[in-house]
Automatic annotation (TrEMBL):
Keyword presence, Cell inner membrane: no
Keyword check for Electron transport: no
Annotated keywords: Metal-binding
Protein's recorded name: 2,4-dihydroxyhept-2-ene-1,7-dioic acid aldolase
Residue intervals of the HpcH/HpaI aldolase/citrate lyase domain: 25-211
Length: 254
């Protein structure tokens, strides 16, 4: 059954007064998604269509695998693309995260792609959102829409972007943002410039009544960012976790 507005997930975590715990998945295998979702640790999993290996069929299979265990699904889009956004939202995902949103115009285009009229221009197509007697329109209204802050321009205009009607929040991509700030690509960053950027995004979201999210690859770092005020934090990511577990399995060589 697909997620409904009352189902567990990101909004339920917020209603409970805590940050939502998110997993990040790039490997398009429904069994992997089901294993992760079945653990009962995460509020949501994000399927990464931008840098992951998902196509339409594997995205649909992953959504079914996660929702079977009551875990909400978010999707990181490849771009601000109305056809792609409509497709994944018709599948019943709880929200989308759009990369490289540099300005208000792009943020408005994102809202247009994700919201039904009159707020947006999304086409009505309840492929899975009507299962079990659910209300597709209510599900559409509850869908989360996050714009990523990954560039110097997005950081400079964070307040304006966060205030766009129909946008739920900003999601920081530390890797690309670090590159944009001249610091190189990395995760779980502690550079003063990056921490200052986090504070600026949090302030922009607070002023706009929006939520802030951030990507991480360790639970401890994600917890620290939740303590800072981020409402959506990635606590686990498939490729770093798999690599770390393989490295940890090696015994000392003679």
């Amino acid at each position: 059954m697909t997620q409904t507005p009352s189902a567990p997930g990101v909004r339920a975590a917020w209603a409970a007064g805590r940050a939502a715990r998110n997993g990040w998945i790039t490997v398009p295998d429904p069994h992997l998604v089901e294993v992760v979702a079945s653990r009962g640790v995460l509020d949501a999993v994000t399927l990464d269509l931008q840098h992951g290996l998902f196509d339409r069929a594997s995205t649909a299979a992953a959504v079914r695998a996660a929702t079977l265990h009551g875990t909400a699904v978010l999707v990181r889009l490849t771009a601000v693309d109305a056809a792609e956004a409509g497709f994944v939202l018709d599948l019943g995902v709880q929200g989308v995260i759009a990369p490289m949103v540099d300005d208000v115009a792009t943020a408005r285009a994102l809202v247009d792609a994700c919201r039904l009229p009159p707020l947006g221009r999304r086409s009505y197509g309840p492929i899975r959102t009507a299962f079990g007697g659910a209300d597709p329109v209510a599900a559409a209204e509850q869908a989360l829409v996050f714009a990523m802050v990954e560039t110097a321009g997005a950081l400079e205009r964070a307040g304006e972007i966060a205030a766009v009607e129909g946008l739920d929040g900003l999601f920081v991509g530390p890797g690309d943002l670090g590159v944009a700030l001249g610091l190189g690509a990395a995760q779980n960053r502690e550079e003063p410039e990056v921490l200052d950027a986090f504070a600026r995004v949090l302030a922009a979201c607070q002023a706009a009544g929006a939520r802030a999210g951030v990507h991480a690859t360790s639970a401890s770092y994600a917890r620290a960012r939740a303590d800072d005020g981020f409402g959506l934090v990635t606590v686990w990511s498939d490729l770093p976790a798999l690599a770390a577990s393989v490295d940890a399995s090696a015994w000392p060589r003679p």
